[in-house]
Design a protein that fits this description.
The protein is of the alpha/beta class. It contains 14 helices and twelve strands.
């Protein structure tokens, strides 16, 4: 069993605002602009009934939050998870604004989701839930307004139902209304692996820049979903050895390296790591504190806090998830010289290829996988180099540098547009 991680002591939004406040102080942002950027612009909460397979009805709660749209339409994932909350959606929407800005995409930030356990629903229940939720939030989403994408507990099939529902309402197909779709209906080549690919590109370059040889580096990955599983494969392809992974059921450890193909096969059959016999079983806390070169937390927020930061032994942390390291832990790890590759930069590959998907859908002209991947590499390397150069010039951690670059861009756009009326 995975051992319990202490619940976050502050709300996710207050953590996101604390990071923003520190950046606003460093940039000397004026009070009015600061007040605008530290709150979300718009939030919609919906309670809606869904018919279950046995004929009964259940009422679900969902959210869609837009933090800032000064630089373009809102963009961000939809999360289907039992612990999803409005507070999480607000914080994650704010991270999306900064993420889009730091990699230079013409988007603002949004996030949403439904409080549910998707694995406890049948496929038809999940479809009905998705279509009804889409209808409820269709008031504020759409190709030019707010474009959802996959996140925890959602994937290409859920995106296909969203696209179809919006298209049925419109009376014609609107593929650009959602990204992360199957390629059969306007999805982009390379989207599924994009977050993991972007993370591995930046991580390898950052390690080399600091004289850490990626080849032979030992890696632990928390979470084995769309981000974690792809990271495990691509970091292995870059010469690293993945010695530990976890999912929500268990952690696995094998000092000589795990058999990733066997773990993928297990997942494809619907199994969980608790069913796997080919490695030692470890707890979630233990995975985070293993003696590794690289730790990739790719599951949930607030996994490394002041409770466990001083036990983390990794030399480099690449934040596959959003906000897996909280600001208290950040201070401890920075003091100890641990290199943290911040979420808004290192896991931005997904939104970069979502942007490519949106552009391809609008143009109705599609690119080959090689073109998508090489454009992704170009954006990730350029963004990393900008963040790294500012961090070096100002003597600050990469997270502070990424935040300064992002907040400056959003502040400039908000200011130059002016306050209506
Ligand atoms: P996913 O649902 O595909 O996978 C999540 C994985 O985490 C699963 O393997 C699940 O079993 C595991 N998990 C859940 N709780 C866990 C726990 N307590 N300990 C260990 N493992 C646990 O989701 P995903 O799309 O891979 O997203 C993972 C994280 O990355 C989320 O925080 C998400 O917001 C973030 N993210 C995702 C994308 C994307 O493109 N999908 C982009 C940027 C950031």
């Amino acid at each position: 069993m995975v051992s319990a991680v202490p619940a976050p002591e502050r709300s996710a939004l207050s953590i996101a605002q604390r990071q923003f406040d520190a950046t606003a102080d460093a940039l000397g942002l004026d009070d009015a602009l600061r007040a605008v950027l530290r709150e979300v612009k718009r939030e919609l909460v919906v309670h809606f009934p869904v018919e279950m397979d046995d004929g009964s009805f259940r009422v679900f709660t969902g959210f869609r939050v837009q933090h800032n749209i000064a630089r373009g339409p809102a963009k961000g994932g939809l999360r289907f998870h039992p612990a999803m909350s409005l507070d999480d959606a607000r914080a994650l929407a704010m991270y999306m604004t900064w993420k889009a800005a730091v990699v230079g995409l013409p988007f603002g930030g949004a996030k949403g989701g439904v409080v549910c356990e998707p694995r406890a629903l049948s496929v038809s229940e999940l479809e009905r839930l998705t279509r009804r939720f889409t209808t409820e939030i269709s008031l504020i989403i759409g190709q030019d307004r707010d474009i959802p994408a996959p996140d925890l507990g959602t994937g290409p099939q859920v995106m296909a139902w969203i696209m179809d529902t919006l298209s049925m309402h419109a009376g014609f197909s609107v593929p650009a209304s959602v990204t992360g779709k199957p390629t059969a209906i306007g999805g982009s080549e390379g989207r599924y692996a994009a977050t993991g690919r972007g993370l591995s590109i930046v991580t390898v370059q950052a390690m080399r820049d600091r004289g850490i040889d990626p080849s032979g580096a030992r890696v632990a990955v928390q979470g084995f979903g769309k981000v974690g599983a792809v990271c495990a494969d691509l970091l292995t392809a870059a010469g690293m050895t993945v010695i530990a992974v976890s999912d929500s059921s268990a952690g696995l450890h094998r000092g000589a390296g795990l058999d990733l193909a066997a773990l993928h096969a297990l997942k494809e059959e619907g199994g969980s790591f608790a069913d796997y016999g080919g490695a030692d079983r470890i707890g979630n806390d233990e995975l985070l504190t293993l003696d590794v070169d690289l730790l990739v937390p790719a599951a949930l927020e607030a996994q490394i806090t002041r409770h466990n930061a001083d036990q983390v032994r990794a030399r480099v942390i690449a934040e596959g998830a959003n906000a897996p390291v909280d600001p208290d832990a950040d201070l401890v790890l920075n003091d100890r010289g641990v290199l943290i590759l911040p979420d808004i930069l290192v896991n931005a590959g997904g939104v970069v290829v979502s942007y490519f998907e949106w552009v391809q859908d609008i143009q109705a002209y599609f690119w080959a996988a090689g073109e998508v991947n090489s454009r992704l590499r170009e954006v990730m390397v350029r963004s990393y180099e900008q963040v790294n150069a500012r961090a070096t010039a100002e003597g600050i951690p990469l997270r502070d540098s990424a935040y300064r670059i992002a907040v400056e861009k959003v502040a400039e756009a908000t200011e130059v547009r002016g306050i209506y009326p």
